[in-house]
Write a structure and sequence with these properties.
The chain has eleven helices and eight strands. By secondary structure, the chain is α+β, with helices and mostly antiparallel strands. Helix 1 (9-21) runs antiparallel to helix 3 and helix 6 crosses helix 10.
Amino acid sequence: MIRAPVRRPLLAISLAALVSSCDEPALQVPADAGEPVLGLSAEQSARVLAKVGERVITLGDFGRTLERMDQFDRLRYQTKERRRELLSEIIDAELLALEAKRRGLDKEAAVEDAIRQILREAMIAQARKGLPAPADIPASEVRAYYEANADKFSEPERRRVSAIVVGDRALGEKVLKEAQKAASSSAWGELFLKHSQSAPKDKSKAPPLDLAGELGIVSPPGDPRGAHPQVPEPVRAAVFRIASVGAVSDELVEADGRFYIVRLSGLTGGHRRALAEAERSIRVALLQQKMQEQERALEDELRKKFPVEINDAALSSVKLPQQLTQPGGATPPDPAKPSAPQPEQAGGAAPSSSDAGK
């Protein structure tokens, strides 16, 4: 996630105070203590706070520990006593790490995997240092993306579907005629409660009459973003043949062995978001794209630098259980088959700014 720069005046004061409060003689300063951290000079960053075995803990190490904290957590370390507590925690962590290495725990497969993941993330973070902030991406690049991806910013017309569902064609034809004569939402609701298989048996749990039989919102047939798991495709097609809100389809619709009397209960017109509305999400999408391109370029470069060989025979010999189950006996979905979209996904969306921070 990309984070906005955090103001750190109190942290700088804290570190400066720590430098001035170190009364003990300085231990041997390492030749390379890493990059200076926050407001510390290189000399201050290299100043030794403690030694644990052969491991040297510098003021720069201490500062980086604080830097990784939430800005409010850092406020706890404004006094010398609390800073000593934090240094003690860092020392304890070093002691545990040393003992873990002595016992060979650093050679365990899980630990080595975790270290590899940390190193991977560090490499990617280093590679991303030169990337621009979303606000620094040129306006021409934003416009080009907008024009090349017009479909992402065009919202189709959406229609709200209601239906009375029956199991018999003859009954369905009869109810269809009555529904076409119904002049109000309440009259439609009464028909739903009287005839629909989906009506609650307990009338006290019945929905308001003007919401009776609602199945969900769909966009036109063929739009992959606008399907709804409770609206069969023939019903979806039928609702887009209805001329006005409140009207009922001229035909009885058969789907999944049942018969639907279909009503158009709401409509939202399609529209295209203007560039100004979409600009923020476009900038985030472009930055994500640049990150992915940079990561792929780095991987390609490393594959050229380090030989990679794959044993396809060994890979093909890996066997997994044929039937996996989740707790409770449920079978997980097949990743090769697309899952039904949820209601909130019906209209689709442009890239979200929450994906990459602000």
